[in-house]
Amino acid sequence: MSRYNLRGFATLPGDSTSGLLAGGVSGGGVIAETDAAYAKVRTPLELANALVAANKKGTIKVIEIMNDLNLGWNEIGAEVQNLASTPFTAAAAPKLHPVLLKSGVSSMQISPKAGGLTIFSANGATIRHANWSIRNTHNIIIRNLKFDELWEWDEASNGHYDKNNWDFFTIGVGGGRVHHVWIDHCTFTKSYDGIIDTKGGASNITYSWNTYIGDDGETNPNSFVRQQVNALEASKSSYPMYNFLRTRGFSVEDIVKILQGPDKTQAIGELSKDSSNPLASVTFHHQYYLNTWDRLPRLAGGQAHNYNIYVDDTKVLAAKRLRKARYDAMSAADQLSFTKNYSFDPPINGSISTEDGALLVEKSVYVDTIWPLRNNQTDPSDPSYTGKILATDTVYVFHNEDGTTINSRGSSTDAGSKLGPFQATIKPFSWNTANGAAPYSLPASAYDDPMSLLDVIKAGAGAGRLTWDRQNWLKTAY
User: Fold this and answer.
1) Could you tell me which InterPro entries the record lists for this protein (predicted)?
2) HEC profile for the chain?
3) What b/e sequence results for 130-142 when a residue is b if at least 16 CB atoms lie within 10 Å of its CB, and e otherwise?
4) Which residues have C-beta within 8 Å of that of residue 402, sequence separation ≥ 6?
């Protein structure tokens, strides 16, 4: 049980810059189900009322989600939409997905002014059609929930996914600093934009034991991606990008395979060189990334610690090679048109540090990630855009097209290491603390050996994986 203790930046008290909280994250505390501050919710209205009480009065400290909830703007109902101080607003209107066109998409605000709130499910309930926005608050815990159905095909920005701005979570967006957040044992599928965006200098955040699984359309004929592709297929000529692919050699199965992975996973930082970026501090541990395209995380300024993350990009690498084969078979004119007009090519990046951010990776595994570590994505000739990044005791496996395999274990500073970074001149790693020292230390028992990490994560990570008494989800140590 102790392996599930709260670890990392969320355990620190913070400071006058990042936000004070003695003792680290505690959420709403360990309180009885019979306590007036404990709310069990089964409907969107019950959830909305509990959040109003938490946000405005601080009278609700624990919200237990008892069952799956569909929280799209058209699903929550007029009573929730018009509730005094409702936490729900309409998000960008869906454009193409047949499910979302009916359900709509909501944004749900979590912002207790005095902080201190735990939202969890004892049974791993699923949340659909909503972005959760944590803003102007602190001491928030989210545990054991699955987030699903927040993606659609992007014609509006030709595959760049820049229009709808849907993330499963946004932290520190919309006013006010956010500090001390713990997101644990959650499962995320495929979102339109990022899975989680952390901005505004949000700090003292820990993500632990989460899984990022994308879409299962390769084996599920009714997956969320397949439902979208089927709708596009019914009227191909109405959608220029989709029609281009379908008339230039891409089959329906090709498109589904390429789309299955999550795209922009986790971004930390506002716009380029924003003054709040250096304030960010985030820990990621025991994360299972399956076929992710990018950003594990992408750090702009600030500092982040990855340990015991497992990245399996086997299928997305095969999808990228499939995409290349279809591209290579096109005429030169079609290749030029594809490159100029459309974005449909997984970059397969791993962990990225930019703008003098400090990102340490320990005892982790990257399988078939083309660029496990990156240190610049803007201008490699300008060191102000370069970040510090270091991996230690990390496994890298990569299956080359010629049948050979890279299989190494070590540090990114080892001679001949394939981990990277290779984009810009390397900045020696140091923490962005007052004296350059590590911001915290972990006991040896907190780390798992990379060679056994996959089994450990599969056994314990994600929503619904653990069968616990509900009181266990309120604790931060075991």
Assistant:
1) Pectin_lyas_fold, Pectin_lyase_fold/virulence, PEL
2) CHHHCCCHHHHCCCCCCCCCCCCCCCCCCCCCCCCCCEEEECCHHHHHHHHHHHHHHCCCCEEEECCCEECCHHHHCHHHHCCCCCCEEECCCCCCCHHHHHHCCEEEEECCCCCCEEEECCCCCEEECEEEEECCCEEEEEECCEEECECCCCCCCCCCCCCCCCCCEEECCCCCCCEEEEEECCEECCECCEEEEECCCCEEEEEECCEECCCCCCCCCCCHHHHHHHHHHCCHHHCHHHHHHHCCCCCHHHHHHHHCCCCEEEEECCCCCCCCHHHCEEEEECCEEECCCECCCEEECCEEEEECCEEECHHHHHHHHHHHHHHHCCCHHHHHHHHHHCCCCCCCEEEEEECCCEEEEECCEEECCCEEEECCCCCCCCHHHECEEEEECEEEEEECCCCCEEEEEECCCCCCCCCCCCCCCCCCCCCCCCCCCCCCCCCHHHCCCHHHHHHHHHHHCCCCCCCCCHHHHHCCCC
3) bbbbbbbbbbbbb
4) none
pLDDT band at 14 (very low <50, low <70, confident <90, very high): confident
Q: Among 337, 318, 342, which Cα is nearest to 253's? A: 318
At position 80, the amino acid (one-letter code) is V
Longest CA pairwise span in the chain (Å): 69
Cα 366 to the center of its chain, rounded Å: 17
Own/partner long-range contacts of 38-43 (Cβ < 8 Å, ≥24 apart):
38/62, 38/64, 39/63, 39/64, 40/64, 40/66, 41/65, 41/66, 41/69, 42/66, 42/67, 43/69
CA–CA dist 117, 344 (Å, integer): 40
Cα Rg of the chain (Å, integer): 22
Domains, the chain, in order of start with CATH, read 2-30+90-474 (2.160.20.10)
**How far is residue 165 CA from its own chain's centroid?**
14
* Structure confidence by residue, pLDDT tens digits, 59-88: 999 999 999 999 999 999 999 999 999 999
Q: Is the pLDDT of residue 17 over 90?
A: no
| Angle at which helices 314-328 and 252-259 cross, to 10° | 140
Sign of CA pseudo-dihedral 335, 341, 345, 347:
positive
Phi-psi label, residue 256: left if phi above 0, alpha if psi -120 to 50, beta otherwise:
alpha
CB 103 within 8 A of CB 129: yes
Q: Does residue 295 have an active-site annotation?
A: yes
Q: Which of 246, 295, 298, 374 is catalytic?
A: 295
Among 9-23, 225-239, 379-393, which is the least confidently predicted range? 9-23
